[in-house]
Design a protein that fits this description.
about 290 residues; mainly alpha; Four Helix Bundle (Hemerythrin (Met), subunit A); about 85% helix; about 0% strand
């Protein structure tokens, strides 16, 4: 198998990938994976390494000096590359697990928390309007989580509709619910129970924001090919709300020393785009339901 074909096999699907992932982070991650794939390193170990880089980025943001902001940008770049590599390694080695996906998501939220705390301490606290900047930082943090969660939901629904993998939104969640119920009566494995429980709660919140589990099942039980065709452009638009795009904006703003632009971009422009996308998505889902009925 050629390198290009092997690289493509390590992608989720070009249709759901973020632009910066395709042109920058994933190619670098693929080269990194090729270097370490025979060393016995596991995807979960790469997830932990990416989290370390991300936390170091948050600490550097908290220092708030011009030099530390540049260091934060470098650490966050490394975080993004390694964060891409765990999934690529899992797909190339067929070693991915639902728990691994959950760990990856938990690591992303830990790094996000570290980054926003770092921004708050190093930037918001150093301005002449600290309360306003802390409020803006918190708003951007919650917006980041909401926007990433929306992308995650619609990305999974799109991939489920393609039929190229086991359904994450229906089959995998049902399996996790059954596993969680089985673990509740056992002693030990507390971390695993906690992570699965948090993920199932997160999934319920996603489904409430996007119309509920019934509509998910209905969308996936109809004409999947029609759903994919009708949502391909929308799916691409959703990716611009993704974490990689957000992190790249943060890296650029850190290098430039303008974290205020990042905060207003996420809390302002990002939320406006998210609302527009949700309205368009619901209209499109309704149109498909009428056609299917």
């Amino acid at each position: 198998m050629g390198l290009l074909a092997e690289y493509k096999r390590g992608l989720k699907s070009v249709a759901v990938e973020e632009l910066f992932d395709l042109v920058f982070y994933r190619p670098l991650a693929f080269l990194f994976v090729k270097l370490i794939c025979r060393t016995g390193v596991t995807p979960n170990q790469l997830t932990f390494l990416s989290m370390v880089f991300g936390i170091l980025g948050g600490v550097s943001l908290a220092l708030g000096t011009p030099g530390s902001l540049v260091a934060a940008g470098v650490f966050l770049l490394l975080y993004n590359v390694v964060d891409c590599s765990d999934g690529q390694l899992a797909r190339l080695n067929h070693s991915g697990t639902p728990l691994g996906r959950i760990l990856d998501g938990v690591a992303d939220y830990v790094v996000s928390l570290a980054a926003y705390l770092g921004i708050g301490i190093g930037f918001a606290g150093a301005t002449d309007r600290p309360v306003l900047m802390w409020v803006l930082t918190a708003a951007a943090g919650f917006s980041n989580a909401a926007q990433s969660g929306l992308l995650d939901f619609y990305r999974n629904r799109f991939l489920d509709a393609t039929g190229i993998r086991k359904s994450v939104l229906v089959d995998e969640q049902q399996g996790l619910r059954e596993e969680y119920e089985g673990l509740r009566g056992r002693k030990g494995r507390s971390l695993e129970k906690f992570l699965i429980g948090v993920y199932l709660l997160y999934s319920r919140v996603q489904q409430r924001l996007t119309g509920g589990r019934g509509k998910v099942t209905q969308a996936l039980s109809g004409d999947s090919a029609e759903y994919v065709r009708a949502n391909r452009v929308l799916m691409h638009c959703w990716t611009y709300l993704g974490p990689t795009t957000q992190w790249t904006l943060l890296v650029v703003c850190a290098f430039c020393g303008r974290l205020d632009i990042y905060l207003w971009g996420i809390a302002g422009v990002g939320n406006i785009l998210a609302v527009i996308m949700m309205l368009v998505q619901r209209w499109n889902n309704g149109r498909l339901a009428v056609q299917g009925g």
